[in-house]
Every structure is written in structure tokens, then in C-alpha cells.
Amino acid sequence: MYVAVKGGEAAIRNAHRLLADKRRGDRSVPALRLDQIVEQLALGVDRVMAEGSLYDRELAALAITQARGDMIEAVFLVRAFRTTLPRFGYTRAADTGAMLVERRISATYKDMPGGQLLGPTFDYTHRLLEPEIAAGLDPETPESREADDGAMPRVTDILAHEELIEEDGAVPQGKPVADISREALEFPLERDARLQALARGDEGFLLALAYSTQRGYARSHPFVGEIRIGEIDFELDVPELPFPVPLGRIQVTECQMVNQFKGSAKAPPQFTRGYGLVFGQSERKAMAMSLCDRALRTSELGEDIVAPAQDEEFVISHSDNVQATGFVEHLKLPHYVDFQAELDLVRRMRAEARQAATEHKEAAE
């Protein structure tokens, strides 16, 4: 016999109180402050900003705290808040070439104009736990270096000078740029909409797809042309003013991937591009995004679709962790009526199967 669970609003209110109690944890341990999360869990904050598509470190830190460290729930909270904000306009296209660079590396050229700049990275650590962190000891102060105002041309510009890489696709003058936060996705997508979707896609999903392209599930032989992490300026055109208004700087990670291309009837053999740009310091996401971007250019370059990472509808429709979470977690909600219908159907099918078996046995005797 099935008995409905009763409780309703009182049970839900109590569940909220229990959640708040669990979130606070042991009262003898000091509560986390948002500035601590912003400063010491910066990469988690950057991920929530990127996938929540809202650049605000304090709000991302609040979402992480409210979600008890569940990053996807934090992304959901930021996206929900974002929908309440007014839209004043669109900034000018940011010039990442003028980035105030904190980290800049290339896997294609050892010596390049402007040089390599390692910056803060896990790349050369031993991946061993450091007890000093738990002890609260301050790290060594990094050595200062002289600021280098020298130009840092892109690696892809070096290849383009020799006509060894495809041209960087420019948006035609006057063509409106897609805004997937306001317009429903319609496949096939233009590259600007596709890049927006990838930029706020789930890092783990895109990483898995990017890995699949390297294992042979796409035509891909990538090189990291360049990764840059730094701050870029944003400006807004105001109709009443004859000059753009500076809005400030934000930190971004940019990755340009260089891929082989054997050529086609329309293009000679050359290198092709994959591009990734995300909020904050998130080079793994930017790299995965650039690999997926190149894989999704299959039709544009006249290649055959032979792998999941090359299927635009599959990649874009399943990369959004907020949509995926909603669809999967809705299974927790009451489905009593649906299940009863399925239960009755299975019972009838079993009864019919038993009846058929009995009739078959009697006929055989």
C-alpha cells in the first residue's frame, strides 16, 4: 500500500533551517568571510563567474558560501541573480592584444617577442600536500621584476605573417553580435553564439570532450599557440558623449590553439585556429574551450563529422551545467502519478505474459 508523505510547507521551512544550520557548521569554528573566499579560493570564484556569466567576485563568493561549496549550485545562483539585473548596453569589443599580462606562455615558440612569462601556475609544482598551508605560515615573498613594456605580438600573428595560418575571422561591419542570454539558441549556430555557449559551459564536460579529440575522436593535432592571463579594459559608447567611457578592467584567460589542416578544394594546407576566452584565471577551461571550438568548425572547414566533439547540437546542448542539473535533479521531485501509471502498466504486462505462458503450456499438453 502506498501512503502519501505529509508535511507540506512546514517540512520545507524546516528543511531550509536545517540547510542553513549545516551550512554554518560547527559554531566553534569562525564563519567564512567573503573576502577570504575571494582572496584564497580565487580559482573557484573565477569558475563560478565564468559559468555564471557574471563578473562579480563578491557575488560569486557569496554563491559559493550559500551553496556550501557546490560549484554548480553556485553557478545556478549567480545565473538566477543575473536575470534580475538591468541591461544598459553593450561595451566596445575588448582588445585582448592590449592585455595587461600576468602570465603568457607558448608551446610553439621558445623565444618569441615579449618572451614567456610563467606567472602563478601549478605547472611546475610537485603536487604534494604542503603542511605549511594548514599551519597558516605565510609563503615566501616572490622576487620582484622590472616591468616590461615591450610589445607582445600574438604567436598567431607570427604565423599569419608567413601565411601559414588561416585568417582570423573578422565580424563584418554592422553585423549584430549574438547574445545567447537573451536569444534562444537555434542550430546551426554562428561562431560568436557558439563561443558564448562554450565560455559558460561546464568545465568538466568541455574538458572531457577536449580530451576525446586528443585521443582520436576527431581530426585534431593541436599546439598551444599562446595562453594569456591578465586584465583588459572595457569601454562603453554613450550617445551623448563623443568619446567612450571607461568602465574598468576585468581579468580574463585567453587561449589560441593552433591545429593542423591538410587543406581542401577551397583552402591550401595551413594551420587553423581554435579559440577560448573566459573570465578570471582558468586556463584549463580556456584550453578545453579552444579545442572544442576547433572541433566544432568541422563543417566550416569541409571535414566529416566523425566524433561527438564535432557535433554542435550535442556539445552545446549538453555543456550547460545549469540546464543539465535542472533536468537531472528534477527526477527528485514527486512523480507519484506518473509512477502509478507505469506501475499499473507493468502489472498488466506481467499478467498478460503469465496468461500467455499458461495458454501456451496448456496447448502443448
What does this structure look like?
With 365 residues, the protein is of the alpha+beta class. The chain has two domains: 12-82, no CATH class; 96-121 and 150-167 and 179-325, no CATH class. The chain is built from 13 helices and four strands. Helix 3 (42-52) packs across helix 5. It is globular. The two termini are 38 Å apart.
Large-scale geometry:
globular
As a whole number of angstroms, the C-alpha radius of gyration is: 26 Å
| Total strand segments | 4
Number of domains: 2
Distance between the termini: 38 Å
Structural class: alpha+beta
Mean pLDDT across residues: 92
- Helix and strand string, N-terminal first? HHHHHEHHHHEEEHHHH
Given as residue ranges, the uncertain stretches (5+ residues, pLDDT < 50) are none
Task: Report the biggest beta sheet as strand number plus sense, adding barrel if it closes.
Answer: 4 strands, antiparallel
Q: Please indicate the percent range of residues in DSSP E strands (runs of 2 or more).
A: 5-15%
Number of helices: 13
Which strand order spans the largest sheet, edge to edge or round the barrel?
A: 1-2-3-4
SSE diagram, text form:
Layout: H1 8-24, H2 34-40, H3 42-52, H4 57-66, H5 71-82, E1 100-105, H6 131-134, H7 155-161, H8 191-199, H9 203-214, E2 222-236, E3 245-261, E4 270-279, H10 283-295, H11 312-319, H12 321-329, H13 336-364
Antiparallel strand pairs: 1-2, 2-3, 3-4
